[in-house]
Write a structure and sequence with these properties.
three-stranded antiparallel β-sheet; alpha+beta; globular; Arc Repressor Mutant, subunit A; ArsR family transcriptional regulator; WH_DNA-bd_sf
């Protein structure tokens, strides 16, 4: 993790930090899976994901198993550099 990512994480709410750690260890997950893994409420996970999306730390995609759900994953350092260059 780069210093810019560390600074972003330091400013996050504890629930958002937990979501980052769960995604870091488990890889891409749906919101339902994040709720189960983190033991946080659905509202708390939703707020944490929104906060992480606003600062470009997670990206949302379509879940392969169920297209009605979104899959969330951490944005890699390389993706952060590419986005800032555009």
């Amino acid at each position: 993790m780069g210093s810019s990512e560390t600074a972003k994480i330091d400013s996050l709410a504890p629930s958002a930090k937990l979501v980052v750690k769960v995604l870091e260890y488990e890889g891409p997950l749906t919101q339902k899976e994040l709720i189960r893994q983190s033991h946080l409420s659905s509202r708390t996970v939703r707020n944490a994901l929104n906060q992480l999306e606003r600062i470009d730390m997670v990206e949302k995609g379509i879940c392969i198993d169920d297209a009605r759900q979104n899959s969330y994953q951490l944005v890699s350092d390389g993706d952060l550099v590419e986005q800032s260059d555009d």
